[in-house]
Write a structure and sequence with these properties.
Strand content: under 5%
Distance between the termini: 30 Å
Structural class: mainly alpha
Shape: elongated
Number of helices: 2
Largest sheet: none
């Protein structure tokens, strides 16, 4: 069997895993949060709706990213 061309031996947090989990959780958690919060906001135009979604989504993404990284840091092997 031929030798692999590249191998990795990551030490510490697997940032690829953190980014993937952050992406998925942000969509799963962020969509309902934006939808629920938008019912109480006055959003007359599509521009207002998009701006609202981006602002709330950014906050959700940041919180999810920090929590996911903290989880990965706490549960890393080694």
């Amino acid at each position: 069997m031929p030798e692999p061309i590249e191998t990795t031996d990551p030490e510490g947090v697997d940032y690829g895993w953190v980014m993937q989990v952050t992406f998925v959780l942000t969509i799963l958690l962020g969509s309902p949060i934006v939808a629920v919060l938008s019912t109480g906001a006055d959003l007359p135009t599509w521009g207002d709706r998009a701006e609202f979604a981006v602002r709330v989504g950014a906050l959700v993404w940041f919180v999810v990213a920090v929590v996911t990284f903290a989880y990965a840091k706490r549960h890393q092997e080694g």
